[in-house]
């Protein structure tokens, strides 16, 4: 459980970024081994318009997660959290163990549309790191918007474009994934991963000639990556160019004798 000073510090940090994020929902939760206690607490909280959700973790500890759309200042949120501490004590609940925040309207972006017109406490580096964190938490749509803002204000452009490719790839949007990688190559023609992944994506959409072209670009950047030569071989095989497919499968095996995909393809040729 947070102490008061830690709680104030955490709230202050979050509210310093609220202009950047469209946040006005708090979602606290209580924990206890006794589910009955939490059910009784839930009934009381429902009368205050909180929506209860029960979750049981692996250690047999129950969590009562409650949700309610509210708009808060730092002061009102801190006051409410203190009230939850007192409520947990009065109901003999093991602990009130924190809170979370989210966007009250899930259709709205996390990143403010006014970002480019304002100055924020959030540094440019932190904005990029925030976008990366969204990606790492599989919030791909929101991450794409966050990286768009990085690109708009000209920070980490190459990396932001590449990260957007990752987002679109996870979302199954090959068209936009390819577009982002091509934009990366406009900035850095020697971006190995962009070339390699363009080869892979082109293969996936059965554009084998482009696949060969991009894999070959990748091979010129890094001639010691066996997966590149296997990619060339596979696309050449699909194009019916068996001699080229054979040469590149052998090259992949020279680099990595354990490349079973190249070995299997070579047998098929």
UniProtKB/TrEMBL annotation:
Q: PROSITE patterns from the entry?
A: TPR
Q: Which InterPro entries match?
A: RraB_dom, TPR-like_helical_dom_sf, TPR_2, TPR_rpt, Ycf3/AcsC/BcsC/TPR_MFPF
- Residue ranges occupied by any Regulator of ribonuclease activity B domain in the UniProt entry: 13-100
Sorted UniProt keywords: Repeat, TPR repeat
Query: What Pfam family does this protein match (any one)?
Result: RraB
Q: Where are the TPR repeats?
A: 192-225
Q: Which residues form the signal peptide?
A: none
Instruction: Tell me the PANTHER family matching this sequence.
Output: CELLULOSE SYNTHASE OPERON PROTEIN C, TPR REPEAT-CONTAINING PROTEIN MJ0263
The name under which this protein is listed is: Tetratricopeptide repeat protein
């Amino acid at each position: 459980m947070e102490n008061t000073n830690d709680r104030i510090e955490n709230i202050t940090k979050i509210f310093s970024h609220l202009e950047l994020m469209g946040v006005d929902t708090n979602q606290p939760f209580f924990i206890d081994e006794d589910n009955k206690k939490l059910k009784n607490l839930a009934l009381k909280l429902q009368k205050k318009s909180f929506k209860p959700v029960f979750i049981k973790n692996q250690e047999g500890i129950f969590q009562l997660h409650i949700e309610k759309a509210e708009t808060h200042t730092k002061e009102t949120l801190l006051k409410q959290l203190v009230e939850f501490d007192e409520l947990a004590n009065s109901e003999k609940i093991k602990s009130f163990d924190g809170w979370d925040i989210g966007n009250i309207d899930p259709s709205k972006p996390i990143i403010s549309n006014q970002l480019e017109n304002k100055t924020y406490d959030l540094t440019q580096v932190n904005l990029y790191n925030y976008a990366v964190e969204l990606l790492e938490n599989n919030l791909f749509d929101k991450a794409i918007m966050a990286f768009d803002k990085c690109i708009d204000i000209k920070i980490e452009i190459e990396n932001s474009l590449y990260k957007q490719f990752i987002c679109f790839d996870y979302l199954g949007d090959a068209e936009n994934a390819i577009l982002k990688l091509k934009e990366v190559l406009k900035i850095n023609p020697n971006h190995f991963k962009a070339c390699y992944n363009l080869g892979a994506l082109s293969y996936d959409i059965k554009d084998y000639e482009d696949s060969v072209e991009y894999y070959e670009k990748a091979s010129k950047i890094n001639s010691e990556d066996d997966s590149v030569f296997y990619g060339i071989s596979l696309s050449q095989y699909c194009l019916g160019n068996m001699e080229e497919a054979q040469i590149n499968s052998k090259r992949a095996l020279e680099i990595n004798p354990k490349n079973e995909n190249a070995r299997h393809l070579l047998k098929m040729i």
